[in-house]
Amino acid sequence: MSTQQPIYLDYQATTPLDPQVLAAMMPYLHNEFGNPHATSHVLGRSSAKAIEHARHQLASAIGAHPREIIFTSGATEANNLILRNAVRLAVESGRRTILTCATEHKAVLEVLSCLAADGIETRMLPIGQDGLVKLTELPTMLDDNVGLLSVMAVNNEIGVVQPVEEIGRLCRAAGVPFHTDAAQAFGRVPLEVGRMCVDFMSISGHKIYGPKGVGAAFVSRAFKRRFAPLIVGGGQEYGLRGGTLPTPLIVGLGCAAEQATLAMDHDRDHAAALRDRFLEVLDEHRISYMVNGSLGDRWPGNLNISFPGVDAEALVSAVSARLAISTGSACTAASLEPSHVLKALGFADERIESAVRIGFGRPTTLHERRDRSEGSAKTGAGSCGQARFCQARVAGRVPCRPRLSLDHRVFRRQGQHASRATGV
């Protein structure tokens, strides 16, 4: 039985640890093991110095001051820290309306749902079928009752890049604090908190080839002194997050942030080339598909695509031995409900149920075979029992560069004349 891993195409869910990141972490997992808060001796001071270096690396990546960076366990904790405090401050100022999008990550929507008990009203911003906020309608919504606006910079399911700078400027002009969940954007697209008028930002480590279990919250100095901790303890992180800081993870996050900043242009162009070639192959085979979300205003490493007549769950299962893809957010994979993001775009159930998310990353390479002699895999599940699915061979393993073969017959229904149909 082969132990060869499937080719990994789920880079929105997580990314492999970059070898340089691992190398930076290793000393603090072994010899440099000091508690960073025990600064009475050299081992503790060494860990503390490493953490402050990582803090500077993150601050530099977004144009912030290092003291505005609060280390957390990930973007979900950062969202909780920011939203709970920002909403409290809004209520104290007499503003009880919070603006956000129905396409936000559950780590934002669920927090706001919990805070409804505090008497706040959450209103959804208008979005088009391309997944983008309708900027023309935003100014009239930013009235005196609005105490916070929260919009994800890059959507985790459909990859669209929101006009964060334009939204931030409108918020600043209206005197409304602005939060962006940048878990999918940090290290992938340029972020400048000053220019974008961002007051709060949530950051994740494992989306940028860093370790899991670590992230950060950017909290503007204008608000930081009025924040209260979610986790109390020894007063770490300027009194905003109790507990001993995990030096190896934070060092890894800092290194990953620096590497991602340096590789940003390359990663974007590389992902775009892979995405474009993937779509070209579908066109060459006359496969009918619809891209979900704007194809122009998009992180190119994300391709959410519907194949009419194909059951997405059956497709993911059919190719799982060769391809690691998904039907949407890994954080809500246990839910049997259709994607709340695609529902918010107003798509019919058939389109939603045929949608898969394909993610291209830094380690992915494209290898096109001329030998088309291999047959196609079939599934016996659901409505797509006659469907033929893509076969891909793994020629390497992460973190090496796997080669993806895309020249087989893919996603075609038997007897169907497949033609291209692109969505918005």
Explain what you see.
The two termini are about 45 Å apart. The chain is an alpha/beta fold. Helices cover about 30% and strands about 15% of the residues. It is built from 11 helices and 17 strands. Strand 14 and strand 15 (about 385-390) form a beta hairpin. The strands form 5 sheets. A 7-stranded mixed beta sheet has the order 2-8-7-6-5-3-4, with helices on both faces. It has a 3-stranded antiparallel beta sheet with strand order 9-10-12. A 3-stranded antiparallel beta sheet has the order 14-15-17, with no helix packed on it. The chain is globular, with a radius of gyration of 22 Å. The chain has helices spanning about 20-30, 40-60, 75-90, 105-115, 140, 165-175, 220-225, 245-285, 310-320, 340-345, 350-355, and strands spanning about 5-10, 70, 95-100, 120-125, 145-150, 180, 200-205, 215-220, 290, 300-305, 325, 355-360, 365, 375-380, 385-390, 405, 410-415. Residues about 370-424 have low confidence and may be disordered. Helix 1 (about 20-30) runs antiparallel to helix 8 (about 245-285), helix 2 (about 40-60) packs parallel to helix 8 and helix 3 (about 75-90) packs parallel to helix 4 (about 105-115).
- Mean pLDDT value: 87
Helical content (DSSP H or I, runs of 4+): 25-40%
The 3D shape can be described as: globular
Number of strands: 17
Measured distance between first and last alpha carbons: 43 Å
Order of the strands making up the biggest sheet: 2-8-7-6-5-3-4
Which ranges are low-confidence, i.e. pLDDT below 50, for 5 or more consecutive residues? 368-424
Structural class: alpha/beta
Alpha carbon gyration radius: 22 Å
Count of discrete alpha- or pi-helical segments spanning 4 or more residues: 11
- Element string (H = helix, E = strand): EHHEHEHEHEHEEEHHEEHEHHEEEEEE
* Beta-strand proportion: 5-15%
Largest sheet: 7 strands, mixed
